[in-house]
Amino acid sequence: MKLRDIYDSRRVWKFSLVAVSIALVVTFLMISNRLVKNLAAQERERMEIWADATRELITSNNTDVNFLLRIIKGNNTIPVLLVDTDDNIIEQRNFRLPEPLDPENPAELKGKNLKYLQKKLQKLKNSNNKIEIKIDEEMSQVLYYEDSTLLRQLAYFPYIELAVLIIVMAIAYFALISVKRAEQNRVWVGLSKETAHQLGTPISSLMAWTQMLGEMGVDGEIVADMDKDVTRLRTIADRFSKIGSMPEKSAMSVNSAVATGLQYMSNRIPKRVELHIDTDPERDCQVMLCQPLFEWVMENLTKNAVDAMEGVGRLDIVVEREAAGALITVKDTGKGIARKNFKRVFNPGFTTKKRGWGLGLTLVKRIIEEYHDGKIWVKESEPGKGTTFAITLPAIDKR
Predict the structure, then answer these.
(1) Three-state SS at 356
(2) Which of 4, 193, 247, 263 has the fewest CB atoms in 10 Å of its CB?
(3) DSSP character at residue 102
(4) Can you tell me whether residue 276 is helix, strand or coil?
(5) Last residue of some domain: 123, 147, 171?
(6) pTM strictly above 0.85
(7) Is the dihedral of CA 351, 355, 358, 364 positive or negative?
(8) How far apart (Å, rounded) are the C-alpha atoms in residues 368 and 380?
(9) For the segment 30-70, what is each residue's pLDDT rounded down to a tens digit?
(10) Is residue 119 part of a domain?
(11) Are 267 and 385 within one domain?
């Protein structure tokens, strides 16, 4: 299975996990809301019983008064306001009043307590939590009640639980991402170091063989060409050896670094590709670079651009100066990239080519951002018209 297929399968797995999580959360909220509605209905029934007991206590002379009083006094959780038709408060229960009641006359409401309950009454009048108590044809009272503390807590509890769940999942996700990145880093480092190590021995042998061929009288031009290829292999091995550890950097002219980085590819791109390099000395600046790795970046971007143009088109590489440092743009007239893939092109395994592992831009991003404190992104692209990659590097001599 190709890395591209693995990447697509991971995306499907992630979307499936998110979909299942959303379904579970929605189900949980629906169950919680149903419980809240059931509890609210039970409290409504209790208040209707309380209202009936109040009516019976006022209108009936033969009723067991103690039983009715037990019903009325048994409400210790639901805040209740009993008012007449003129909104005069007759009785209140279970409200947290701002001031203590007068122990000699607890039924009397005055001062802050009265203002507090009047405000509560105005709010409750706009709610559905009221029950009319018909005493007789000329007299009636209205019972207003608030949701109990338990019901209010239960109503908020699912959202609190959901918030905690999201926080825990976010922590777990970022922890998993950190572990995954650490594992990826170890894989990158291991593969790179092993590649450099494996290339070392045959490269050394080839260097010895080219020297022997020169001593044996083989055509000098042939030996020189072989030396160039061996030197190229040694450069590639050196690049791999630098992955995984902070490479040594030195101050360099960004114009010179770009020109050197393009030197190898400029002689190997098809003749039908017009290469234009704009490195104005007035826009030059000094940056800290590891030259072998930066050359790898420029070669990779150039090769990708040539592949995208299928050997025919125009490639513009421009170096500009910004307040924070250098801006390098690589613009081609190739196939282009869909906007949805602007960030995905840097993911391991993502490639639009029929052949390839999709690792080049991943290495480029790592070299620029992790080793040079820069940034690389797709500046603009349009399918069928081309793509522009942009690189920023911090300058030593900032303006």
Answers:
(1) coil
(2) 263
(3) P
(4) strand
(5) 147
(6) no
(7) negative
(8) 19
(9) 887 888 888 888 888 887 887 777 777 777 665 555 655 67
(10) yes
(11) yes
